[in-house]
Amino acid sequence: MKQRIAQLLVACLLGGISALAAAQAYPNRPLKLVVGYPPGGSGDFLTRILADEMGRDLGVAVVVDNRPGAGATIATDFVAKSAPDGYTLLNSTHHAIGKAIYKKLPYNPDTDFAPVSLVATGPLIVTVTPGFAVNSLRELIAYAKANPGRLFYGTSGNGSSPHLAGVLFKAVTGTDITTVHFKGGGPAAQSLIAGETQLMFATSPTVVQFIRAGRLKALAVTTRLASPSLPGIPGAEEAGLPGYDSSFSFGLYLPAGTPAAIVRRLHESAARVLARADVREKLAAQGMDATPSKSPEDFAAQLRAEAPVWERVIREANAGVE
Q: Which residues contact 61 (CB under 8 A, 6 or more apart)?
């Protein structure tokens, strides 16, 4: 028995040394950064900046893997089931949203992930085509009330920030507008430009270039106050809708069970990248603020605190899917 105990102790010690050595050697091959949206939207834009800059910081390639569909649950499930070795990450919105939207998920959003860091936040933009006969948020609300069910707004998928911004808009204004889901912000914006839809609550990187080029028209941002990174676009309160406040955010996640040393290494890399002035300027030019968490533990605590808020918003808006 004593010999068996000694063997177990040696095995545990060697296992600990092996895990420590692996963490110290990390990373020694390319990483995969997964996002649940196609090219052209805010998630893809942010993911590509992170991949480029974190790749330089870590000294290895970080490859973007777009896996759109099913409200980003396809990408999320892929990462949840990936090896917890630090080589597969997810850039995603709050997991409580998917949990509240879908009654059945192929993964457990509460236990299948190791939070790394919040990355960026920003307001959405209430956007219409230049030919649509409204020029302010007040006029949009009046039109929607006069034409129930005849106003169509595109989203980047069920449970996405544009979808939830529209859900909240309907609840606050008491209007009946019709939701049209796409596989990402890029396709939704193209539908708006083509006149197939008339309205979009768009994340800023998706539409800001179209607005600057005159191909789309901004009525307001979805936050209560205007955003310094989006000059000339009024906040919802100034535009005539004081009870409306919605924003979007993205964060980095790893599969549950990833060694703590690797989680912290990736957090530190993201924090260094997001602290750089040139990176912050790139994000600001697209209407986003770099908002890295102080630590993985702080990010996890923020996620826990925000989860009931998202669950309540989705429940009260009856936005769930069977």
A: 30, 31, 55
